[in-house]
Write a structure and sequence with these properties.
The complex is a heterodimer of chains A (about 160) and B (about 180).
Chain A (H helix, E strand, L loop, with lengths): L6 H10 L6 H17 L8 H20 L5 H30 L1 H10 L7 H21 L19
Chain B lengths: L2 H8 L3 E6 L6 E3 L2 E3 L8 E4 H9 L3 E3 L7 H13 L11 H11 L7 H28 L12 H35 L1
The chains are: A mainly alpha (about 160), B mainly alpha (about 180).
GO biological process, one term (chain B): DNA replication
GO cellular component, one term (chain B): GINS complex
Keywords (chain B): DNA replication, Nucleus
Chain lengths: ~160, ~180
């Protein structure tokens, strides 16, 4: 089973040999990333190259299916595989989003100081939006009604 | 992790089937499968096998280890050994479950196999529970367990890690006294 220890090994692989990998290998990497993300308490580095590669594979396959004859026996198997991969993909991304929601302000703070970002561009956008929504919600619902000296949200003092 | 997700992972394992239709090689993202010829045995991922079986398009060949004699030996070995023994397949429980559910007619002596696998599972889970009990009661910081399968680990993972966390917290509180208790929240 994939563990967190496996991560350093594929770091080079996924970036330098990204082009040369077969679809099956990418799928294997995606599954590994999915399991690692699932069992790690913190947000791991983003694997957007793998995710994007798999998305384009799925899209290509779907176009092929469109072209295929209706009622072809093969189509149902291809469709089933797409569903399986899509499940892994969405489960993976959803776990990441859950973690981002949990550690929003911490992630946004450390993101600026890190050399390779943990969040993908989309995830960063999500985190920022989530943060601002959360802050405005807190301000409108509670902080406004507090005494003036307590009206600030200090990320160091709050758990979120 | 949900048991259904463990089952999902186990569906990648390959298994032999005998199809009753013919079809060229199909090029799936996860690798090529086929070609299918009626009456000719070939290996496919388990999820395809189950799907084809559901559509009455193939006969599944039980894996080599799914045999009453082998499983009985395994059970004996498991009973005699103090430790966990190596299982013939990492996903023995899931595969047995899936095959017996979808293709009981293709598995010789399905009922006996079901009983044996359940017995082995029970033996191993009992062993796992008692070793966890010893582990938690003693003061050691780590333990080594070999040959546990993913499904077995999953039955204890959520509870064990949480419980150890709580124990750790309680221990901290005892050793640092009440002062820490109030400042910890």
């Amino acid at each position: 089973m994939a563990t967190v220890d496996d991560i350093p090994f594929d770091e080079n692989g996924s970036e330098e040999e990204g082009e040369a990998m077969t679809a099956a290998e990418v799928l294997g990497k995606l599954e590994e990333a999915w399991l690692n993300e699932k069992f790690a308490p913190e947000l791991l580095e983003n694997k957007s190259d793998i995710v994007e590669c798999m998305m384009s594979q799925i899209q290509e396959m779907e176009e092929n299916i469109q072209r295929a004859k209706k009622g072809d026996f093969k189509v149902s198997l291809h469709r089933m595989e797409i569903d399986r991969i899509r499940y892994i993909l969405s489960s993976y991304l959803r776990i990441r989003l859950k973690k981002i929601e949990k550690f929003t302000s911490h992630l946004l703070q450390t993101e600026a100081t890190l050399e390779d970002p943990c969040l993908s561009a989309e995830e960063l956008h999500f985190a920022k939006q989530y943060q601002s929504l959360l802050e405005s919600h807190m301000t409108n619902m509670a902080l406004k009604h507090m005494p003036p000296n307590l009206q600030k949200l200090d990320p160091k003092l709050t758990s979120k | 992790m949900d048991p259904s997700e463990v089952e999902f992972i186990s569906e990648k394992e390959s298994i032999s089937i005998v199809p009753n239709f013919s079809l060229d090689k199909i090029y799936l993202i996860g690798g090529d499968v086929g070609p299918f010829n009626p009456g000719l045995q070939l290996d496919v991922p388990l999820w395809i096998a189950v799907n084809l079986k559901q559509r009455q398009k193939c006969r599944i060949i039980a894996p080599d280890w799914m045999d009453v004699e082998i499983l009985e030996e395994k059970k004996q070995e498991e009973q005699e050994s103090k430790f966990f023994t190596k299982m013939p397949c990492d996903y023995y429980m899931e595969i047995t479950q899936l095959l017996l559910q979808h293709a009981p007619d293709n598995i010789p002596k399905a009922d006996e196999i079901r009983m044996l696998v359940k017995d082995i599972w029970d033996l191993r889970i009992a062993k796992l529970r008692s070793s966890i009990d010893i582990f938690v009661k003693s003061d050691v910081t780590h333990a080594m367990l070999n040959y546990l399968t993913l499904m077995e680990l999953n039955t204890v993972r959520p509870f064990l890690t949480k419980a150890l966390d709580h124990i750790q917290q309680l221990r901290n509180n005892v050793s640092y006294g009440a002062a820490l208790w109030s400042s910890q929240d």
